[in-house]
Design goal:
Layout (H helix, E strand, L loop, with lengths): L5 H13 L2 H4 L21 E5 L13 H7 L7 E3 L5 E3 L2 E6 L4 E6 L12 H12 L13 E6 L3 E6 L6 H4 L29 E7 L3 E6 L12 E6 L3 H10 L4 E2 L15 E14 L9 H10 L2 H7 L5 E3 L11 H4 L16 E7 L4 H16 L2 E7 L5 H5 L5 E7 L7 H9 L13 H11 L4 H17 L3 E13 L23
Helix pairs in contact: 12-13, 12-14, 13-14
Length: 504
């Protein structure tokens, strides 16, 4: 594939974006008559454009969990600090009592429905998460029991030793909700039942959500009085909304729009997100490891980084990219790979989603590379909420997605367990390999930071050796932020966006 002239591509997309302005104008008027365009004093509402609409009615157990944490709605017992270590959240401290037992001391806090955060409520929330189907990714391969311990603490006991339990409990999918959240059958609702600085008050069929400041938040009052969130899947429309002043913050902007935005509104940060090609190892043509090897050898990620990401990414090196600073020095060469077979016109279906605007372009490049190698490729592109269930059910032969390797737990082993083991809850490659499971299990039971990293890299090598996944690019965050806004949180783990200090 020839790489197109980037200036021509940018100019074309800038002109195409202009037709999208009317569709967004007026969509972000703030409630109560407050101006949505004059910047306002501190305490004004924030207008935020997010890339992904709720896929599971704001269930905290799946992909929607990060929507809730990015908007400041939910919290767990712990959080992750800048170095990826566990930090206090609803738990103000903790200690390890034995290999399998930890005791967490709770801070005084209030749920958004006005009830107190009690040990029994916290233990119940964690217990319900363990029973969710599918199991939250942070709990893949982990069994735990939580119980109240006196008036201010809970005790968490795991079936096997879990040296990173405090990091695991920072996962957005293990957010603590009040008992009211679980009153109705089905997934719990975070509307008015969470603990964060912002409370969801209304949801409009997945297209928008209104949030108000939760004044009784344990950490104090947030600067912004509320958030008017819109879910705008078109990345060019999100960028254009920043350009015209219709939104204050827009996440996940297309790299092609970076050159068209005023530099003062363009924010970049490193991220642990990797775009990968997942191959269905359980059914269809890629059940054959030799055809998986053929797909791997056909893909040239340098073309993708240069032509699609325009330099806002690094070529795929593994499941962990450069933002995981220790990974390169510990990487293990994959072994046991099958020899590549000749595809001879083998028909495959390749799927991706358009919420992240680069992905359809990545898919087109991969499609051409696979066809050049001898595959016959049908490309299917949908909005993510209409694609996830089919992808998890193995209805596609190959899937291109963007995944933050440290999102679920902050622990490097977490993504391996959830995405590449037989019982993994987000196993898009549908991999079930005894050698991989053993390597991940060994890594999961390893204590000590350096030793655990070494074991994680050995497990990564086993997964790459099975050719279940082909890493394509390690991405950067590109966000659009009004010059009137301060305090946006550009989190490499992509768990946060709006915080207590975010204001305009």
């Amino acid at each position: 594939m020839q790489v197109r002239d980037l200036s021509i591509k940018r100019s074309f997309r800038f002109l195409a974006a202009l037709v999208l302005v009317p569709g967004l104008a007026g969509c972000f008027a703030s409630p109560g008559g407050e101006s949505s365009s004059d910047g306002g004093p501190s305490g004004s509402r924030l207008r935020v454009a997010l890339a992904f609409p709720p896929a599971e009615n704001f269930s905290p157990y799946g992909a929607d969990a990060t929507l809730l944490s990015r908007l400041g709605v939910t919290e767990g017992l712990t959080a992750l600090d800048a170095n990826g270590a566990a930090a206090p959240a609803l738990a103000e401290s903790w200690r390890r009592e034995s290999d399998r037992t930890w005791r967490f001391t709770l801070r005084e806090a209030t749920f958004q429905d006005g009830t107190d955060v009690t040990p029994s409520a916290v233990a119940d929330a964690l217990t319900r998460a363990t029973r969710a189907k599918p199991v939250p990714a942070a709990l893949a391969g982990v069994s735990l029991e939580a119980e109240a311990d006196g008036s201010r603490a809970i005790r968490v006991t795991t079936t096997a030793a879990d040296p990173v339990l405090p990091m695991r409990l920072s996962s957005p999918s293990l957010a603590i909700l009040s008992p009211k959240a679980y009153e109705k059958k089905g997934a719990p609702t975070p509307v008015g039942t969470a603990t964060g600085p912002f409370e969801i008050t209304t949801v409009d069929s997945g297209g928008s959500a209104t949030l108000d400041r939760f004044d009784d938040y344990w950490g104090g009052r947030a600067h912004a009085s509320g958030i008017d969130a819109r879910f705008v899947k078109d990345g060019t429309a999100r960028a254009n909304a920043v350009r015209t002043g219709d939104v204050d913050i827009a996440e996940a902007l297309p790299v092609a729009q970076a050159a068209t935005l005023d530099k003062a509104t363009l924010k970049e940060a490193g991220t642990t997100r990797t775009t990968s090609l997942q191959l269905n190892t359980r059914s269809g043509p890629f059940k054959d490891p030799k055809l998986r090897a053929a797909a791997r050898t056909a893909v040239d990620s340098s073309v993708i980084v240069k032509g699609v990401f325009e330099g806002y990414a690094d070529p795929g090196a593994g499941i962990y990219g450069p933002a995981v600073t220790w990974a390169d020095g510990k990487r293990v060469k994959p072994t046991g790979r099958a020899d590549a077979a000749r595809p001879d016109g083998t028909r495959i279906t390749l799927a991706t989603y358009d919420n992240r605007p680069e992905l359809p372009e990545v898919a087109q490049v991969v499609q051409q590379q696979l066809e050049k190698a001898g595959f016959t490729v049908k490309l299917e592109v949908r909005e993510y909420s209409r694609l996830e269930s089919d992808a998890l059910a193995g209805k596609f032969d190959a899937f291109i997605g963007a995944r933050n390797s440290l999102l679920d737990t902050g622990d490097p082993v977490g993504v391996l367990a959830s995405d590449y083991t037989c019982d993994g809850g987000y196993n898009l490659a549908r991999l079930c390999d005894k050698d991989v499971d053993r390597a991940v299990e060994k890594a999961d039971g390893t204590d000590g930071t350096g030793e655990r990293q070494d074991a994680a890299m050995a497990a990564e090598a086993a997964i790459l050796g099975a050719d279940a996944v082909v890493p394509l690019a390690h991405q950067q965050i590109i966000a659009g932020v009004s010059t009137k806004v301060r305090g946006v949180v550009l989190d490499p783990y992509e768990r946060a966006l709006v915080g207590m200090g975010t204001r305009r």
